[in-house]
Amino acid sequence: MADSAVPSGHAPAILSARGICIAFGPRTVLDDVSLDVAEGEIVALLGPSGSGKSTLLRIITGLLRADRGTVELDGRSIDDLPTHRRNIGLVFQDEQLFPHRTVAQNIEFGLRMQRRPRTDRTRRVAELLAVVGLPGFEDRRVTDLSGGEAKRIALARTLAPAPRIVLLDEPLTGLDRELHDQLTVELARLLRETHTTAVLVTHDRDEAAAIADRVVRMEGR
Ligand code: ADP
Ligand code: MG
Hints:
Elements: E1 13-24, E2 27-38, E3 42-46, H1 53-61, E4 68-73, E5 76-77, E6 88-91, H2 103-107, H3 109-113, H4 118-131, H5 147-159, E7 165-169, H6 177-193, E8 198-202, H7 205-211, E9 214-217
Parallel strand pairs: 3-8, 3-9, 6-7, 7-8
Antiparallel strand pairs: 1-2, 1-4, 4-5
Helix pairs in contact: 4-5
The protein binds adenosine-5'-diphosphate and magnesium ion (MG).
Adenosine-5'-diphosphate binds near residues 24, 52 and 53.
């Protein structure tokens, strides 16, 4: 496995973050960080707590603005695009589903934002439920789901609008060991089967090795 900020081979980068710098007050958190991710590639961003992994993801999604540097998607700067127009999916560690909605209503959230017609949404929801191994779960209440099921539904919700790239911020951290190991295998399979381009943030090197094509290390400061 390569350990580099640049993809091996010659596949063009979908995502390209260049020279990212950010400081919070006197504290420099990211100092000239660059990251390229090629089409279909799964990159793990591995680093200790506080090394700036979440900060980098927030900059890529537009939730936070870098002091310097630029983010390109498919060769175009997205620095001035708001988060919801970047076509980037994001899954947080403590991803919350909408508690008063069904599984189907949760998954179709992004599709409604895209104003996709109902028949289209229904088909896509069924497709995603099959992908995450929970076919027929449309009408379940999310409050009745197990922890593992809720993780799968959160992932389905992020994948439903077919984002260009998916960023996963420690999605498996904090789970008990058995569920963690099971979901690690499933996530690796699922991302590959759906040809999803992804950045997985983790501090767990075994998880990184199991899921990613390439590991990029962030240094602690
Ligand atoms: P990681 O995800 O690698 O654990 P973070 O990106 O969350 O690290 O944070 C990196 C550092 O930046 C931490 O020291 C954190 O306290 C600091 N930090 C992050 N966001 C802010 C903020 N909005 N204001 C001040 N400090 C912040
Ligand atoms: Mg973090």
